[in-house]
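Notes from the 1:1 (GR / supervisor)

We went over the backlog. Supervisor wanted to see one worked example end to end before approving the batch request, so GR pasted a single chain during the call. The sequence is below; no edits were made to it. Supervisor asked that the structure be written out right there so they could see what the output format looks like.
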Amino acid sequence: LVDGPPADALLAQPAALATDGRRVWWTDAESSAVRETTPEALGVRHGPAGADAAVRTLAGTGLFDFGDADGVGDAVRLQHPQGLAWVAGDSGRSGRLLVADSYNDALKWLDSATREVRTWLGGFAEPGGVCVAGGLAYVADTNAHRVAVVALDTGAVDALAIG
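Structure output shown during the call:
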């Protein structure tokens, strides 16, 4: 796990992408981490790169540093996160990331500004992907063989009716 300019940064199995239009986040599944950069750092926009034009780790510390611990920054332990979604905040709130912490069978909130991670809901069976729309999170609950539908305001979990 190496941060820095994109040409110098090292990744370990990037698995999911999310953006708020200003930043790009991804899970780095093998290093049990969540990372970020800017479109400018990736050469998407023209113009001089700013000071934040680098890859930065928000949670996780390395390839063999995994577990299940809430906290801030380097104190956080995830295990093979594979899903990620940006959830815009209400007016006055900047928003946060919803992380599918796959091998911990949980959904966790990550504040990209403070690097704080808090477990929100457990009881999934290796959630492998997540997206958000209309106040709901849709979770690919891999080993439960379902798409779970979670109300963002209450945390109520249901299954997507298929067939």
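Supervisor's comment: The chain has a mean pLDDT of 90.
Batch request approved.
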